[in-house]
Write a structure and sequence with these properties.
By secondary structure, this protein is α/β, with parallel strands linked by helices. The protein has 12 helices and 11 strands. It binds adenosine-5'-triphosphate and iron/sulfur cluster.
Amino acid sequence: MPMSIARVQKARAQARPKLVLAAQTSRSARPPRKAPIPSTHVRDCWPIVQLAHIDIPIVTERLAGIRHKILILSGKGGVGKSTFTSQLAFALASDENSEVGVVDIDVCGPSIPKIMGCEQEQVHPSGGGWSPVYIMDNLCVMSIGFMLPSPDEAVIWRGPKKNGIIKQFLKDVDWGSDERPLDYLLFDTPPGTSDEHLSIVQFLRNSNISGAVIVTTPQEVSLQDVRKEIDFCRKARIPILGVVENMAGFVCPHCHSESKIFYPTTGGAKAMCEELGIPLLGSIPLDPQIGKACDFGQSFIDINPSSPATKAYLSIIENINSLLDSPKSQ
Ligand SMILES: Nc1ncnc2c1ncn2[C@@H]1O[C@H](COP(=O)(O)OP(=O)(O)OP(=O)(O)O)[C@@H](O)[C@H]1O
Ligand code: SF4
């Protein structure tokens, strides 16, 4: 039998409060729309960095003889950090009295083996632990890239596994004998402030890091991330050696003159360094020969000795060495 209009209206009126109540209940069960902003990554993770780890004393002892431990950092990816690490390593190793090591802690994107021309090599056990790959008598490299079945193999790891391999790189690798300890150990890191950074800072907390070199490009988007990197270093108490401005201009392949292609942003790194009281170690121009040398695993500075970019690299390296030798960083 069809309901009268009056009965339908009454039924609707009775149902309405229930519907409102149901809606209110489900809304209140949802998280508030304006969720509190999480505190910063470093602040959250700082207690982890400070955590005592059973292996820290072993790492500290293993690395004790190494004169300078230098982190190469960048805020953004692709700014030329691994390229700079490789050229720094080649230049330092050109002095045959210096022993140089490079450890690639960019676990998910290891590019050092390719850039340094040792992609096909493998690591082997030795009496003192894993033997790193020797490119020259006085230049050795360790990277997860040497352990992958193919360079195209993706490493899809969460923090604890990354932490584990970084610990092994520090603890189980034979970084030179007591008679011939390394003068420099360079750490090529992934961009930003991620698990790898927290691991390295944690494991090196008693190992006296000499300092960090932060690589950027001239654009404001890159400089903005450098500020975060500087903040990370300050919170993690890593001394900052300075900032390197990469791709700061363009060297013409025909006439070899340099054009400031990022004008008017060129100069932003200098202004930022002045504002934050950090040395600007130098500016490296964009030179297609750098990309070519990296793709062929060659030392750019050796095969292009008179290029403006080589002069820039060498001047930066001189600045780093004088900072390392200054009493403040001893
Ligand atoms: N000054 C330069 N002139 C020309 N090419 C350069 C210069 N610096 C770096 N490159 C090229 O830019 C590309 C990125 O460089 P690189 O891999 O060193 O960056 P990255 O910061 O280490 O990157 P990632 O974030 O992946 O670690 C490479 O192809 C490299 O050869
Ligand atoms: S810098 Fe001079 S030589 Fe080089 S491409 Fe431009 S105009 Fe030509």
